[in-house]
Design a protein that fits this description.
By secondary structure, the protein is mostly helical. It has 2 domains: about 1-80, Rna Polymerase Sigma Factor, Chain: A (Orthogonal Bundle); about 105-175, Arc Repressor Mutant, subunit A (Orthogonal Bundle), CATH 1.10.10. The protein has 10 helices and no strands. It has helices at about 1-5, 10-30, 35-45, 55-80, 100-110, 110-120, 120-130, 140-145, 150-170, 175-180. Helix 2 (about 10-30) packs across helix 3 and helix 3 crosses helix 4. It starts with a helix and ends with a helix.
């Protein structure tokens, strides 16, 4: 960490390589428009603060995810203010909902965890992602979200209960459409 703080390019690269994939995944799950670009912005902000950083690797990881969360919030706000222009494609028309069966089958293909997380309320999803992807403590998560540790614990508890219910529901659902008629 000391070498990186002094500007050693190799040390900075090692820090980036160790944490960037998790930051990209976090930003992608939060709905960032350009998760790779935001990840670069996050690391630029973190690297300028390395000389003042305390807490070693844990402090570095906590600071990085705190900045990533702030950038994700800013990006979502920016997206909400700007209208999106795109060609009309009936197949991707978001105004029509797919059936429950189609949603369940789509969730089983790839990214089942992402699908389950998407069903959680935003605050619960954020807490779970920071705790699991970011490997942040309750205190670090509370700091990143600018809330109390008690609130983080409560949100995490609710998220775990909701995920358990969702998983047990998906496990008890028929795996084959032929079983639905039986």
């Amino acid at each position: 960490m000391r070498d990186a703080a002094s500007g050693d390019g190799v040390a900075l690269r090692r820090l980036y390589d160790a944490l960037a994939p998790k930051i990209v995944a976090y930003l992608r799950l939060r709905g960032a428009e350009d998760p790779e670009g935001l990840t670069n912005d996050v690391f630029l902000a973190v690297f300028t603060r390395l000389d003042r950083l305390t807490g070693g690797w844990t402090g570095f990881r906590a600071l990085t995810f705190t900045i990533a969360h702030s950038r994700a919030v800013d990006d979502l706000r920016r997206q909400a203010r700007q209208p999106r222009h795109s060609e009309y494609d009936a197949e991707h028309d978001g105004r029509a909902d797919s059936s429950a069966e189609q949603q369940a089958l789509a969730g089983m293909d790839d990214g089942e965890a992402s699908q389950l997380l998407a069903l959680l309320p935003d605050e619960q999803r954020t807490v779970v992602m920071l705790r699991v992807l970011g490997d942040l403590s309750v205190a670090q998560t509370a700091l990143a979200l600018r809330t109390t540790e008690a609130r983080v614990k409560k949100l995490q508890q609710r998220a775990v209960l909701a995920l358990r219910g969702l998983v047990s529901t998906s496990e008890s659902a028929p795996k084959d459409l032929d079983e639905v008629g039986r």
